[in-house]
Specification:
five-stranded mixed β-sheet; alpha/beta; Nucleotidyltransferase, domain 5; 10 helices; 15% strand
Length: 191
Amino acid sequence: MKKFTVQYRRKAEGKTDYRQRIRLLLSKKLRLVIRKSLKNITLQVIDFTPVGDKVLVAANSRDLVKHGWKGNTNNLPACYLCGFLLGKKAQKKKVGECILDIGMQTSVKGCALYAALKGAIDAGLKVAHSKEIFPNDKRIKGEHITAYAKLLKADKTKFDRHFAGHIKRKLDAENLTAHFTEMKAKIEAEK
């Protein structure tokens, strides 16, 4: 008779890589956990305890909407601002050094995960990283979205379909870069 070991539920569901998790926990540092869904991004600074993980600081792209963000909540500028917001909250709670935990998500150079990481680092959080992984500053500010909006402006039906969310939230897609700068200054000015 063959013996069969049942896998942990989260491993079977493809939610947790326990080998990666144990490597992160052995560092004995706080973890900066970044998770991205289709519409939002969530960042948390988590401390491991034997009883269970303890969330010290958290920020979500929905928090940006509460601060006045009118753009999409899952694009590069929103991810950067969410990371920046988390970094500011972490400074207030005197959180120092962290290690990055992106979980089972695919690591792609210049992706939204690294835009969020850059925001957290720019706000003062210390996380080991390589500068080559970050998206360039023009993409973080949303200049590529603004350029695309200007390109589509000639075809009203395409523009209205593609930027329907911006129109609904009363944000001119061509002014996204200015809105980004305004939001960053607003988050930085908060006490």
